[in-house]
Amino acid sequence: MKIIKVRTKPAYEIEIRGGLLTDLAQDLKDRGYGDRYFLITDSNVRQLMAEDLLEMLREAGLPVEILSFPAGEASKNMATVVELARKMVQAGADRRSAIVAFGGGVTGDIAGFLASIYMRGIAYIQIPTTLLAQVDSSVGGKTGVDLPEGKNLLGTFYQPRRVYIDYAVLGLLPLREIRQGLAEVVKYGMIKSQRLFKYLERHSGEIMQLEPEPLEHIIAESCRIKAWVVSKDEKEAGLRRILNFGHTLGHAFEAASAWRLPHGEAVAVGMVAAAKISEKRGLISPEITHRLENLLTSLGLPVRLALELPVSEVLTYLRSDKKARSQWPVFVLVRDIGETVFDPEVPEAMVKEVAEELGCR
Amino acid sequence: MKIIKVRTKPAYEIEIRGGLLTDLAQDLKDRGYGDRYFLITDSNVRQLMAEDLLEMLREAGLPVEILSFPAGEASKNMATVVELARKMVQAGADRRSAIVAFGGGVTGDIAGFLASIYMRGIAYIQIPTTLLAQVDSSVGGKTGVDLPEGKNLLGTFYQPRRVYIDYAVLGLLPLREIRQGLAEVVKYGMIKSQRLFKYLERHSGEIMQLEPEPLEHIIAESCRIKAWVVSKDEKEAGLRRILNFGHTLGHAFEAASAWRLPHGEAVAVGMVAAAKISEKRGLISPEITHRLENLLTSLGLPVRLALELPVSEVLTYLRSDKKARSQWPVFVLVRDIGETVFDPEVPEAMVKEVAEELGCR
Ligand SMILES: NC(=O)c1ccc[n+]([C@@H]2O[C@H](COP(=O)([O-])OP(=O)(O)OC[C@H]3O[C@@H](n4cnc5c(N)ncnc54)[C@H](O)[C@@H]3O)[C@@H](O)[C@H]2O)c1
Ligand SMILES: NC(=O)c1ccc[n+]([C@@H]2O[C@H](COP(=O)([O-])OP(=O)(O)OC[C@H]3O[C@@H](n4cnc5c(N)ncnc54)[C@H](O)[C@@H]3O)[C@@H](O)[C@H]2O)c1
């Protein structure tokens, strides 16, 4: 078992343990986050495990209701939030009720957002069930929904009261989803921890087998790094942007592929791109890029684009990035594994060249 | 001119001055809340004054767009918020854009909520144009929208960067709307300021004539009191509940009338009810209730229900009040003008008796 403290305001803890769901009921009773609980989940997770969890909680005597929505990013919108809110009101949820977000990043983002606005804010806890949610989206308090015009355009910063990570549930997750999460784990190594990076290099096989010990280790290290970053910069004013390593181009690749390229795979190639740009900016030697490529490959992640994306669209997207201060993004580069630099002056021609090396046309 | 400091986190100021709209452009330029402004207003205010304001701001060289929605409480819902958000995205609004809420409480609540969730929070300023909004809804950072199941069920606590109160705009407001705001002003006297109460007793005539000096005085005193209360208790944990004086029964009257009774009028009768209950609980003499009734009458506000409401419905509503800790509300009573007490143990029979004295059947 590992406990990570997240020093946001208010602060909270992430508990990481295989099998913790089996004694969750007692813990909720002891901690008393609400006098009633609303378990929010998606249709897949409901079938796979949420009905079982519901039964366990009820058997332990906790007053809990379950509410779900159709699985998938397409549900991550305000209509879903309003529907869930109305069901809660109809069920009599008030300010002392608490929300339990049980599912992947989509569930966490929707349920966290709902908790932040329901009667102007009620308690919520996160039980992330995808690797991506366990190492990324459940930490940091970003909540939100999409608009037809773009992802995550409406949302809040709202911290959960506690995050429970039971990696035993990953056994049910398709391998491709596991890989989406691993891309973020590699990112944490690249931006902040030479040690985590080396650990991944040595243990990639066991990790792909979902062996408990290395899983617990990499999840805990990822949460520790993300928790450190967000506690230094809760509202994304400065430091937090190091989390964008690999994401600046990664998002552009996703967008240019009209979201056919999965996020983690886009980020994997985006990290290779950031490494190559770091090389060209004279920050690192090609050896580091090679280690990154080897590690990604051993984790089943791509290092080149599988789709032929038009480089012009990638560049157009970069110029309209909502996180950009001016009309051109600040790139997060590395000068070593675990050490980042911000670079607002990467020439467009250099980005184009790298994008083409990676498979854009 | 008066300036009131609101010591929330973050803190901000309320500027109160007749005619301040005419030099708003320069002030916005000097303070620079955003690099683009989105003026949000309702259809009435747009026609009456927002187009003029827009022109003034543009002439001063400020980059500003206007967005509006149909006037009225029926627009205060998530569909309006999503529509405004989408228009902002389409117009290229980003994290450095700022929202200007220009209108009554409905506009302030919608625009403030939108500001709090747009890209997880952007700057906004309030320019309230009804007396109710100037003395109540623009201060304190409560934002929100209604659900079909009830009012203000979704929302946030989110402070504006500045509030600009130009009471000259009240000249366009129907007298009935002025009275809705005056009910809240009387409330501030009752809960916190013997002096304000006496001022209202002496100056009710001038106030009804909308004379600038007394208007500025009562708006400033109201803002000062509300600002003091909310800075002590930003998230409505304790003290802030004194603002519910007259509202516990007031809301029940509104609900029992199916919202045919306007809010301020319901609160006026609700305050008389709270005074009568205070009497019956041995806290005050009948003389105080009489002064309250006289003041309300001189301001054109009712002291008895104009509609015959079923007392059973009033009681049912009280038992389901979302602000109640248990199933029965804590009443805010007075032991003198300007001094409140919380009373969780007002007998139901006593409430019934008072409701009947005021016109319930
Ligand atoms: N808030 C943040 O900081 C943050 C950070 C990164 C990503 N995100 C968001 O996270 C979302 C992506 O998260 P995701 O990849 O977890 O998507 P997801 O929630 O849609 O989960 C992916 C799929 O796996 C299923 N699933 C979940 N747990 C399972 C399990 N244990 N076994 C089998 N199937 C399971 C889900 O039903 C879904 O079909 C995006 O919307 C993204 O914007 C948010
Ligand atoms: N956030 C808070 O703390 C808080 C407190 C109290 C009330 N409220 C909310 O405020 C709302 C009621 O506010 P309201 O009474 O201002 O309603 P409103 O915003 O609907 O305004 C009332 C009417 O007056 C019009 N109007 C506005 N300014 C005008 C002017 N200067 N001249 C002529 N017409 C004008 C509007 O177009 C509207 O038709 C409710 O939704 C209530 O929930 C919020």
From TrEMBL, chains A, B:
The keyword Lyase applies. It is found in: Cytoplasm. This is 3-dehydroquinate synthase. Pathway: Metabolic intermediate biosynthesis; chorismate biosynthesis; chorismate from D-erythrose 4-phosphate and phosphoenolpyruvate: step 2/7. It comes from Thermosulfuriphilus ammonigenes. Binds 1 divalent metal cation per subunit. Can use either Co(2+) or Zn(2+). Residues 68-179 form the 3-dehydroquinate synthase N-terminal domain. NAD(+) binds at G105, V106, T107, G108, D109, T129, T130, K142, K151. Gene3D superfamilies: 3.40.50.1970, Dehydroquinate synthase-like - alpha domain.
